Amino acid sequence: MTRLQWLDYRAALGERKTYVAAALMIYAVLAVPLLLAEPPPHVREVIAAWLADEDPFALFMFVWIDLVMNKVIAFVPVILASGVVLRERDTRVLGLLAAKPLTLGRYFVIRTVSACAVMLTLYAVTQVPAVAWFHGQIAGFRAGTFLAAMGLHACAAVFATAFAATVMVAVGRRGAGALVAWMLLGVMVGLALVGFYQPDWYALTLANPLTLGTLAMGNLQQLSPAVLLPPMLALLAWTAVTIAAGARLVRKMEV
Amino acid sequence: MVASTLDFCGHVRREWQFAPRRGPLIMMLVGIGGVVFTHQLLPLLPERAIGFMRAGFALEDMAAVLALNDLMAVYFPTFFVGLAGSLGVVLLAREEHRLELLLAKPVRAAALVAARATPVLGWTAAVGVVSSAAMAAAIASDSEAGSSVTPAGTFGSGLFLTAVVVVLLAALQLVFVKIRDPFAGLLVACAAWFGTSMPTAVLLYRPDAFARHPLALSLVMPNLLWHDATMAWLGPLSLLIALPLAVALVLAAGAWLERSDAL
Amino acid sequence: MSGSAILVEALGKRFGAMQAVDGVSFSVEPGEIFGFMGHNGAGKTTTLRMLLGLTRPTGGRAAVLGHDVVAATLEVRRVCGYLPASYALPPDMTPREFLQYVAAMFAIPRATARARGEALLRRFGLEAVADRKLRGFSTGMTQKVGLAQALINEPRVLLLDEPTSGLDPLGRHELLEHLRALAQQQGVTVMFSSHILSDVETLCRRVAAMHHARLIACGEIAALKREHGATTMDELYLELVRRHAS
């Protein structure tokens, strides 16, 4: 199965939409330093208060995660994962593949894991080179902290991809499924940072998987495995449960 | 006996009859729900968060802050319900080998694309109008939040955004007829949506950029709220203009499909 | 009958109020090319799909190479090759990539998969287009890649649903030759479903005929022709249908 997983990942990686998604993310990497060249005082003050951190790097991380990467994980996962099984069914490729010695549930798992791996690859090819670019552009930029924070955020992106795939098969139709996945991810992204704005709700917001992906922001000064690992593990568990649910749902699909 | 051919209105009537209704109706409820949610949630946020939005977007009072968030509740569902439908006009139909069946009938590609797109755009506009009405009603019922925006002005702002969405989706059909992969189409559409939201983000983090280009302020979403009285008449007018313009754009998209070897 | 490659006993499938397959029984011997004929909607595709476990029977039972099609679906699929009547190939893959992809679904070791893939590309004359995207392939080329993917696991049973429809005369001739060679040289059992009766006659010794969800005849073509006083396949089929109707 490892070889099938590898071939599927490579096929997914070679699709045009992956390159377009990478181009969008690279554009964001290039554009954000321009956006943050002169933040107005009220923005600096408020974000410093929310994160309890006056370092300009904290302001950068807030904008990078809130304005850019949280938007990315509301949209790109839907595009990467919404073709899983449904596209093969609608284009009649599934008629061939379903006759192979592989259950539909297993096939869904392989396709979804590939989509998640493509999402991780997109993170790797955009965030790692971004370090070099941001280093010269952002005052007080800390490469290690940035990569650690984005490592956690990548786990949220992987969850979002699995979630989009599962929502799609639950809805059963591509257009409507993409719309529902966007809406649900949009709501999760919209509420992801509410715990920073209203500390009274912080504990409640931890039920939102996409909030878990942003938790590094509150601990940028002492980011450690103890801070990162619990949300990472929680996100991996969310992802596994979501994929399992999708695999169960897809069994009911008529090929 | 030779089958008679339909005129364009006949094609539109047929497509309208078979257009899916459930999605748009659900999204109308989502739009209304989004407005209600905004009006319930925002007053519970600390003054600092509200102050951040007021200072960042040059809004006079809480009513304007609520209206700005309401506009997102109009813009997001309206655009994405329209996009989901728009993908079916050419892109998904082509991928699922339905387009060639349809185009083999006695109908010009331009008329077919426009006829298939018109109900989608119509329902998109309906979602926008209903969400805008919900927004106006919410502003009217929340009179203590301030007077910088009026129900008529916010309704107009919502209609203006709806008009933008309708024209944007129609323009995207020009791109969709040239794209084979529906997901590439989705990405292009998302990029376009982000493109329209970018000036507002720039206003928050780089207001100095507008000092050199004051005309660019007309591209930011709070601009709709800064000109409340104007929006009360400009919003409905822009939607009235947008609808025929959108039909012209989808006709052009169909004509382009006809000329290209896009099947 | 325990040595049958395919054994079908009173197999039935009901979709709501519609009986798609009704109490069908027949058997296919190993290495045989077995014709399965009938009009569109007669129940041929549903029967083939039940043999692969893609559709669950509502009555009767069936086994492929001794594997029950319900209890051991994956075992059945492991030994079968299948070409559906209506399908598409992934547009963004090349024939070479697609064959490797399908081979991986059978967990065929990489070197073996590569060798088999190359051999199939050669066999079907696809070497020149092996690295071209499948998008835009002609019907004939698509059918060749479709058949190649059905053979990548060196199946002992091949289930083909209307494989010649849409092919030009040359393509049809080539395909029938390939199938004959598979049966004769490699002992592959072929179940050949078609409503093109001349193809069935060219290829098969025995046939089963379906009509309105029921099996109306099963046996050697020559014997059936004699029994029903028919000289051509068309006459035979029409006679069978007429008798069934009366």
TrEMBL record, chain A:
The keyword Transmembrane applies. The chain crosses the membrane at residues 20-37, 57-86, 107-126, 146-171, 178-197, 227-250. Keywords: Membrane, Transmembrane, Transmembrane helix. The keyword Membrane applies. This is ABC-2 type transport system permease protein.
TrEMBL record, chain B:
The lineage of its organism: Bacteria, Pseudomonadati, Myxococcota, Polyangia, Nannocystales. This is ABC-2 type transport system permease protein. Keywords: Membrane, Transmembrane, Transmembrane helix. It comes from Nannocystis bainbridge. The chain crosses the membrane at residues 23-42, 72-93, 113-140, 152-176, 183-205, 231-257. It comes from the Bacteria. The keyword Membrane applies. The keyword DNA damage does not apply.
Automatic annotation (TrEMBL), chain C:
This is ABC transporter ATP-binding protein. The lineage of its organism: Bacteria, Pseudomonadati, Myxococcota, Polyangia, Nannocystales. One of its GO terms (molecular function) is ATP binding. It comes from Nannocystis bainbridge. Belongs to the ABC transporter superfamily. InterPro entries: AAA+_ATPase, ABC_transporter-like_ATP-bd, P-loop_NTPase. The keyword Ubl conjugation does not apply. SMART domains: AAA (SM00382). Pfam families: ABC_tran. Keywords: ATP-binding, Nucleotide-binding, Transport. The keyword Manganese does not apply.
